[in-house]
Amino acid sequence: MAFILLTFMASCAQNAQIKGPPYQVDLTPPVIQSARLDNEYRLTFEFDEAVRAVQGDVQIEPVLNIASAESEENRLVVTFSDAQKIGESYTMEVKVTDEADNALTFLYSFTGWNPRVPELLINEINPQGSGSTPDCIELFTLKEGNLGGLVLVIGTEGSPKDTFSFPAIEIKTGDYIVIHTQPDGEAVEIDEIGDDLSESGGKRATDTARDFWMKNDPGLPSNNGAVSLYNRKGGDIIDAVLWTNREDDLDDESLGWTSESFVWAEELGRMKAWQSAGAVPLPSEAMAVEDTTGTRTFCRASVPADTNSPADWHIVPTSGQTFGAVNIDDVYTP
After folding, report:
1. Residue 267 gets which letter from DSSP?
2. ω before 22 within 30° of 0 (cis)?
3. 3-class DSSP state of 311
4. Which residue, 123, 205, 266, 275, could crosslink 309 as a Cys pair with Cβ 3.0–4.6 Å?
5. Kindly report the CA angle at 125 between 123 and 128, in degrees rounded to 5?
6. pLDDT in tens, 47-86
7. CATH class of the structural domain 119-315
8. How many C-beta neighbours within 10 Å does residue 290 have?
């Protein structure tokens, strides 16, 4: 499970434990190996050595009552007496010591556990948008649930260009969600968290889907890109898509990818989120982007399949984009 260290401090014991012979002194504090959110009541840290901590060594904002902080050899298990709020952003301050009293204090940020993650597909994208038809990503809901804490990434979580974290909103089977990646910064560009799907204005806002707006105006990579969706920050991947205008080059260490897109392809291949014959998907195993435009989008079928491959996708004819509605099955012919 991935984790975020905002800051940390290490200190050495004044009366360090002396081991011998040859009488080595342990002056090294513990090192975090991983952090894992187990459920809405429990969080586990793993270190490179046995650690100690007491309940008072753990603080969290916003406040969650801590039932216990128990050391289990090289693990620290923090149990909450209150359930985390779905999608809430928490920051925890933790202090641990090792057997030689070397101390490590760090901050760890996480998103409240979501026990009702919906089943979603990335359903339509237009990586070669224009000023009047800016880049968008559409999600389609296969099974109802709560969006709280889900993370959409341009790129992959290990190498993101930008991310969008969803607020806690209940969605129903069949709902569409449109994420606008190139907002104009206008006041009418509103994240639709309530029941009114006509609340937002702006380019490509739709009354038939929930509109959300990425604040940093990242856009989508035009020629070589990826989009991935995760059940929470540092969590499991839900869906992904990979596209390129490159050709295979087996003599190149990047297999023909750009250096950036190779990282994305490698990560998606390692997570089994995109099909490939080898460990890393080749450019020929990604979606070919050349014929897309702002209105000739990548779409799944009207009844979507999900094999994590280009077979799931087609390019629609000019003006065939359907953000916020059922995809058309017509295929663009050059």
Report:
1. H
2. yes
3. helix
4. 275
5. 165
6. 999 999 877 889 999 999 999 999 999 999 999 999 999 9
7. mainly beta
8. 11
